[in-house]
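Sanity check. The docking grid for guanosine-5'-triphosphate depends on where the pocket ends up, so I'm generating a full predicted complex first rather than guessing from homology. Inputs follow.
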Amino acid sequence: MVMKKGFFDRVYSIIDNSDILIEVIDARFPEKTRNKNIEGFIKRHEKELVLVLNKSDLVSKRNADKTKKEIKKEFPCVFISSTQKQGMKRLREMILIKTKNTGNVVGVIGYPNTGKSSVINSLSGKKIKTSITAGFTRGEQTVNAGKFKLIDSPGIIPLEERDENELVLIGVKNPSKLDYPEEAAETLIKLLKEKNPEELKRLGGKSTDPEKILEEIALKRKRLMKKGLPDVNSVSKQILLEFQKGKIRL
Ligand SMILES: Nc1nc2c(ncn2[C@@H]2O[C@H](COP(=O)(O)OP(=O)(O)OP(=O)(O)O)[C@@H](O)[C@H]2O)c(=O)[nH]1
Ligand SMILES: [Mg+2]
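Predicted complex below; grid placement will be based on this.
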């Protein structure tokens, strides 16, 4: 009987079959979308790893610079936006340097929805399918990108139990599935307050209290319940979805 291989076995077999590895991370949540166990595994197998901070079009320059300084201490890293085609030349050059003395197979790994398939498309000029829905890529596939080959893989689902609000923010869970979207929305408001207050102002948040801010945004958008009260539940889902779609920047 053929045994169905476990998920992590598949990741490890990609690592085995690759000469170097790229870990695609969401530049808005670098720490939450990295997998340090797998990074450690790659290191122990003496394969080069490049951290690619994708979706950098969705973070302010100030935040990007701060993150870069931290990550660079651990691994070579490149900030890119695969959809806006920023930083792609630098990434290509980095791959060429790293693969020079090894083979030319580049394994692309990362959490669901970080943009692995988009990065591969941008590097290869091909059009493999991407999606706003996390967990989209199912099987592995190898894509030719001229001097090197890229292996696309399904997103690595974190083994540890993750907080569902966090999963919504990193784009792995649909906000409409939350019983209390207000909670995740308040977390987002707090993050915006800390990291990109200009964006919060643009949304119409003036108060200091996140709960109040959600009410203000609901009123501004005329998301109202009976008697004209702000519909915080519905506006929470709305802004979370906009954040997932990249319409709100961090
Ligand atoms: N704004 C922005 N959106 C991006 C970028 N890269 C990818 N996306 C979007 O993020 C979503 C996920 O992209 P995919 O390339 O499908 O991500 P993936 O990592 O292959 O996802 P799975 O196959 O589900 O693991 C899509 O809606 C992309 O358009 C980027 O650089 N900037
Ligand atoms: Mg994919």
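Relevant for the grid: The CA atoms of residues 135 and 150 lie 19 Å apart.
Also worth noting: The chain has a mean pLDDT of 92.
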